[in-house]
Design brief:
By secondary structure, this protein is mostly helical. The chain has 4 helices and 3 strands, in the order βββαααα. It has a 3-stranded antiparallel beta sheet. The chain is elongated.
Length: about 200
């Protein structure tokens, strides 16, 4: 068996462990300990010969480089997963901040402006005030689009497949673009992590 790091389950193992002790050799690569090689004798009453021990030492040297590569790949995958998760969490936070902060402020300003216009009787010479109200409406709509773009709520509500279907339906409805959606093996896609 080849174990990476200190302790824990082996990264790779071959054969079945017998009820007698293991012989281990540390795996070192470029001056760092990356794991260990564990082997067993064929029988408890057959000790390792000097030649077999030298062979184990040589084998440990040969296994160290590929084991270091496997450890590096594993560490890179974990780092990528942490990065993607952090990015998605930041998007969620930004979406919430925009939705709960700037969005209501723009909507409130627009409603106050409408109330002011109604109080003025909507006189024709108040075109600048109407222009401000229109601009606030456009800003609110643009903010909603930006919020949706950060992380479409359909991803959380419907999952990846449902969100893609809803998006394609929106394309058909908005511009008459003919879009056909078909998924095979839905259960495989449903198991993907949210941050992926």
């Amino acid at each position: 068996a080849v174990g990476l790091g200190r302790g824990g389950r082996p990264a790779r193992a071959c054969g079945t462990q017998r009820p007698w002790p293991l012989t281990t050799r540390e795996l070192h690569y470029r001056g760092s300990r990356i794991g260990e090689l564990a082997v067993q004798q064929r029988a408890p009453d057959e000790p390792w010969t000097r030649r077999e021990r030298r062979l184990l030492d040589t084998l440990a040297l040969q296994v160290a480089a590929p084991a270091a590569t496997v450890a590096l790949i594993r560490d890179l995958q974990q780092a990528r997963e942490r990065l993607v998760t952090a990015r998605e969490e930041e998007r969620r936070r930004l979406r919430k901040d925009l939705h709960d902060g700037v969005g209501p402020a723009l909507s409130g300003a627009r409603m106050q402006l409408r109330a002011a216009l109604a109080g003025l009787g909507g006189a024709p010479d108040d075109s600048a005030v109407h222009a401000i109200e229109d601009d606030l409406g456009l800003a609110s709509a643009e903010l909603r689009r930006a919020i949706e773009g950060l992380r479409p709520p359909a991803l959380d509500e419907l999952g990846l497949i449902g969100a893609l279907r809803a998006w394609c339906h929106g394309l058909r409805a908005a511009g008459g673009i003919p879009v056909s959606v078909r998924f095979e093996g839905d259960s495989q896609i449903d198991g993907l992590p949210t941050a992926g």
